[in-house]
Amino acid sequence: MDDVIKMLLVSPLFQGIPEEKMMEVLRCLDARWADFEKGQQLFRQGTSLKAAGFLVEGSLSLEREDFWGNRSILAVVRQGEIFGEVYACRQEKRLNINITALEKASVLFLNLETILESQKFPEDIRTVLLGNLVGILADKTYYMSRKAEFLSARTTREKLMSYLSAQAQETGKTEFQIPFNRQEMADFLSVERSAMCRELGKMRREGIVSFSKKQFCLKGKAKEE
Fold first, then answer.
1. CA–CA separation, 120 vs 113, rounded Å?
2. CB-side exposure of 179: number of CA atoms within 13 Å?
3. Model confidence band, residue 118 (pLDDT cutoffs 50, 70, 90)
């Protein structure tokens, strides 16, 4: 549990919380542990999410699925990240996504509604948690606005260039690693995998980008299609 506490202390939600207060905070958040196997769905569209999740181990996919079963990846959750906070704060809202384990995962579920109940927390702790939660929600809003930019591009190449450019800008490096394999990347950008791979091959031959699996390096000047 000590390793988990250390992981929680550097997470956005608990920044500024003294280590000696963490067990008390977790009790107030009705923290509970759950394990999931690879490929297991934690939650399906249309269900309610009663608590946010802190991913202790593994990775998760947040996916949207249409009537015909077509999948679009909204985000991948990695170790140490929080998911489901919007739905956990508004429990009357039903999920419009599926949450699936990409690999064996361990999750600590936290009832964020208790933060709104002032009597459950000392005022100083509650103030820190509320400020951190607002910051997390703002970051998620920014992330979704960036994804809207990628999807608004007209062609597969424009979507790829928009996404890869954003990754370079966020890391401050021309060489970086993306969180997706090729199928997940295609689902995230809402393009056909085969068409995306062909376009990546063209971009590599033109000297715009080099890559190996999840590792990418931007170089040269992008050419007009």
1. 10
2. 18
3. low
What are 143-196's pLDDT values in tens digits? Answer: 878 888 888 999 999 999 999 999 999 899 999 999 889 998 998 898 999 999
Domains of the chain in start order, with CATH, are 2-149 (2.60.120.10), 153-218 (1.10.10.10)
pLDDT tens sequence across 53-74 = 999 999 999 998 776 777 788 8
pTM over 0.85: no
Query: Cα separation of 164 and 217, whole Å?
Result: 9
Most confident of 47-51, 181-185, 214-218: 214-218
HEC string for the chain? CHHHHHHHHCCHHHCCCCHHHHHHHHHHCCCEEEEECCCCEEECCCCCCCCEEEEEECCEEEEEECCCCCEEEEEEECCCCEECHHHHHCCCCCCCCEEEECCCEEEEEECHHHHHCHHHCCHHHHHHHHHHHHHHHHHHHHHHHHHHHHHHCCCHHHHHHHHHHHHHHHHCCCEEECCCCHHHHHHHHCCCHHHHHHHHHHHHHCCCEEEECCEEEECCCCCCC
